[in-house]
Amino acid sequence: MGGLRNIWSRVIFAGMSVASSGCIGAAGIPGGPLQGTGATLGGSYGYALAPAEVTLQRTPDGSRSTFHDVAGDALNFPLFPARLGFRAGLTDYFDAAGDLSFLDSGFEVRGGLPEGARPIPFTVSLGVRRGAWGLLDSDNRFSHEERVRFEAYPRLGENEEFRFNLIATAGVSIGRRYHPFVMPGRYGDQRNENEEGSFGPEFKDRVLRDETRLEGSIGFEARHRRFFTSLVLMPYVVAHSSNTDGHCTSCYNWTVNDYQSNFGAALFLSAGVTFGKSRGNMARDGR
Question: Measured at the alpha carbon of residue 91, what is the angle toward residues 286 and 161, in degrees to the nearest 5?
């Protein structure tokens, strides 16, 4: 058993030390199967990609130019951690959670069948996110999201020390999304250019856009008594977009004319601990 404990410790350490992005605009991370009455504290570390095409129009003559940004939902530079979360289990069948991050923060409530239930543990989740609740005070304040999601957590395997669960979700969200981007140096005033030839991160170089997204996630989690870790890939596609508003403080004689981004994904590694009468603690006590 000592070998298993050492492996578990290394997994947690790897999750805590990964170089990650703290500025990610993504849906709430699936919370895993319901654990019963108790409280959970955890942190998440992630990286996001969302290919985007930004078209600029030159003010003096109306000419247009396009550049590409691979991370339209995030500014991928290391901030530690990406999100901090708290979850409270009120009964075996209901919990509520909140998380705090840089671009936005969120709240959700879930109801369903807890871990170990038959035929499979599942939840239905209702969540909201607000840029105004985030740690950054910039144009992210105008973003918001409302979401409904179905989550399934079938058991993959277990032994005396660990429980392994699949994470699979599908849902839909609507809201006004904040898309920051880093301007290539050729569009700006060269007196403000940094050493890399770009003008970032500048949180007011951005697009705000109303979007309806179809969202999913796939991953797994491992639980050891009161401790857990999970790795989740969260892709989405944009089913509809409208009301695009672009702004660029780093541009010199250029304005944002158009923005195209139709899909994206975020990868999150999470770890945490549960207190109280959780299902992991009940298993430890032989109940």
Answer: 30
- The closest alpha carbon to 256, from 50, 73, 65, 69, belongs to 65
43-57: average pLDDT: 90
pLDDT at 241: 96
Whether the predicted pLDDT of 76 surpasses 50: yes
Q: Of 104, 107, 108, which is closest to residue 134 (Cα–Cα)? A: 104
Residue 267 in tokens: 């990868």
Assign residue 21 a region (left: φ > 0; alpha: ψ between -120 and 50; beta: otherwise): beta
CB 29 within 8 A of CB 82: no
Length of the chain measured in residues: 287
Cβ(267)–Cβ(233) below 8 Å: yes
Give the best-scoring range by mean pLDDT among 72-86, 132-146, 271-285.
132-146
**What's the whole-model pTM score?**
0.83
Token pair belonging to 63? 């000419």
Q: Give every CB contact of residue 210 below 8 A, 6+ residues apart in sequence.
A: 174, 175, 176, 177, 241, 242, 243
According to the model, what pLDDT value does residue 75 have? 73
CA-based nearest residue to 208, from 143, 282, 145: 143
Distance between CA 24 and CA 102 in Å, rounded?
A: 8
Phi, psi at residue 189, to the nearest 5°?
A: -75, 115
- What pLDDT is stored for residue 95 in this prediction? 96
Tokens coding 8: 């578990």
Sequence-ordered strand ranges (E) for the chain: 21-24, 38-49, 52-58, 64-69, 74-78, 83-91, 94-101, 105-113, 122-130, 144-152, 155-158, 163-180, 206-224, 227-247, 254-260, 263-275
Residue 228 has pLDDT above 50, yes or no: yes
